[in-house]
Amino acid sequence: MSNSVWGTITTLLPRRRLIWLGALAIVLLALLWWLRSVIDMTPTGLRALLAPLGIWGAVVIVAGIAVILVVPVVPATVLQVGAGLVFGPWLGFALTVGGDIIGALVGFTIARRWGQRVVRDRLSPAEQIAFDDLCARITPTGMILLRVLPGPAYTVVSFAAGCSRMLWWHYLIGSVVGVAPGLLVLTVAGDLSTTNPLLAVAIAVMFIALMVGLSRVLRKRSV
Q1: How high is the pLDDT of residue 2?
Q2: For 190, which of 42, 81, 89, 151 could close a Cys bridge (C-beta 3.0–4.6 Å)?
Q3: Residue 17 has what pLDDT?
Q4: How many structural domains compose the chain?
Q5: Tell me: the pLDDT tens digits for 31-50?
Q6: Residue span of the structural domain in which 196 resides
């Protein structure tokens, strides 16, 4: 095994994959920029746009988060903050947790049922070794720490957990416990963005700084 779980995950996220994901993200961000000309993209405008959708607005938020956590073409943070903005901190938090649970279980199930063919066989020999290394590191406690890792690493960990011997409910508990504090912070920040945007930005910046710090700690240790 390698000395660092971060090194293992880095092997599974080579530059070519990150460039591909980055290109998709740029296209989607360009689309959002264009939408600014036809839709009021301010917090108040988005709340006015989505609030009338009622339950369907909630479905869009949950489904969007779930899809992004399986195919990470844009940061899920966008929708997680948006849930707090549109639905308030508590309902928004519940919706983001729901989307996270669905996304985590979809990634886990894909790997559990078709991991060899869909995931592992698509990797290079070096990446297969790294993937097997990561699978061996997956534990219920380790899941809590691994969920600190942002972006595409979330999907990689879900797939590795599915290919490991971990029970699905152990995986789900560890995953939810790991992400819940951050989701609460993001939805509260989203809610505050309409009444106290400076505080919302400060909360978001502190959250990002905390995640970066925890990620650095994780890079230096094994799970």
Answers
A1: 43
A2: 81
A3: 65
A4: 1
A5: 767 777 777 766 667 777 77
A6: 5-219
- CB-based contact 26:32 (threshold 8 Å): no
pLDDT in tens, 145-179: 888 776 778 999 999 999 999 999 999 999 999 99
What's this model's pTM, rounded to 2 decimal places?
0.81
Q: Which two tokens stand for residue 23?
A: 């290109």
Task: Name residue 185's amino acid.
Answer: V
The residue behind tokens 């995640």 is 211
124 token code pair: 């290079």
- Which tokens hold the place of 214? 């925890």
Phi-psi region of 87 (alpha: psi -120 to 50; beta: other; left: phi over 0): alpha
Contact present, 134 and 1 (Cβ < 8 Å): no
Mean model confidence pLDDT for the chain: 82
* CA 27, 32, 35, 37 torsion-angle sign: negative
What is the 3-class SS of the chain, one letter each residue? CCCCHHHHHHHHCCHHHHHHHHHHHHHHHHHHHHHCCCCCCCHHHHHHHHHHHCHHHHHHHHHHHHHHHHCCCCCCHHHHHHHHHHHCHHHHHHHHHHHHHHHHHHHHHHHHHHHHHHHHHHCCHHHHHHHHHHHHHCCHHHHHHHCCCCCHHHHHHHHHHHHCCCCHHHHHHHHHHHHHHHHHHHHHHHHHCCCCHHHHHHHHHHHHHHHHHHHHHHHCCCC
